[in-house]
Amino acid sequence: MLDDIAIRVRQNIGIVTAVLLFSVLYLLYNLAHPKGFSSAVLVQNGDEIFALAMLAMAQTVPVLASGLDLSVGAVMTMVGCFASYLLTGAAGGTPLHLDIFGLQFGLGTFPGGVNGILLGIVVCLAIGALAGFVNGCVVVYGRIQPIIATLATGAVYIGIALFLRPTPGGKIDDDLNWALTNSLGDFAATVHIFDDGAASWFAPVAWIPVPFVLLILIALLVWVPFRRSVIGRAVYAVGSAEGAAYMSGLPIERAKIAAFTLAGFFAGCGGLFLAIQTSSGNADIPQAGAYTLNSIASVVIGGTSLLGGTGSAIGSIFGAMVLRVISFFFRIFDIAPLLQPLFEGLILLAAVSIGALGVLRVKNTLELFR
């Protein structure tokens, strides 16, 4: 039994390393924090981690197929701007209009209330998935390298975001904001379930942050089934050896399109939550770029090879957590804002360098193409 455990650890050494690194850093962070190990700190951390964790998952899927998606930050930003229009929750609905060259065109009224919010969430996630689907089609049918294709489509998505929100604005339903960015107890009290969160059996879990619950649900309900599906296994096969996958009759084109579509869905989840958290939409170009770069670093820290074929979105989640905890230390130790980019750059460089260690150990260059 111990031999089996040792084998599994070696097979998943990247994830194990990310989990251990996160555990050590987060323990030190809570020990250094004046209010460490409290529900309030955990909720705040969950809110800050969720969006990057979603983008790390989004980046993981194309990387597994030997690609790189530079549009995940742009998709996140675009979906956030759409959400600022569709999730107002206004009782009478939200009038939608289009301004082009000073001319205003009415698009009708988007439903309000709870049904309108649920519809808005579905629409926002569909927009993210559609953006990813477009990325996949450009890569597969345009026969363009993913890094170039997604750089171009990312610029388009940022342009759409700027068209929607030239300046930050919009409004997200207050109850939705409160319910999803706090603890399960606050969520239950907001939606009036479990005796408004006061049920005795519910008390032991009422302190758990909603973002962490959402993260677990998305991983279990979306990522795990995808990884175990035929298309999911094909994605791994394409990343390991595309030529061999083709000769084996695997659906390579469908696998690539599915990888980018799922990436768009995950990025949409991140953008949706970020809009709910900030209660507004903002076409922030530097923020989109920073999230994209951090998503790549998270993937590497989480044990996924940039060469493709090995890794997991679960490891990338912990990689994102490691990056976020490091940024938490900036606040604890009062690092000057002007020095923070320096430390972040060094950390990103170190993270990407970790992914090259496996290449440095290769003695025969042909091994890189197996």
Give a structural overview.
There is one protein chain. With 370 residues, the chain is mainly alpha-helical. The chain is built from 15 helices and 2 strands. The chain has helices at residues 2-11, 13-32, 39-64, 72-86, 113-141, 146-164, 174-180, 184-191, 210-228, 230-240, 242-247, 252-278, 285-301, 313-332, 340-360, and strands at residues 94-100, 103-110. Strands 1-2 form a two-stranded antiparallel sheet. A hairpin with a 2-residue loop joins strand 1 and strand 2. The longest helix has 29 residues, at 113-141. The two termini are 31 Å apart.
Write a brief structural summary.
By secondary structure, this protein is mainly α. 69% of the residues lie in helices and 4% in strands.
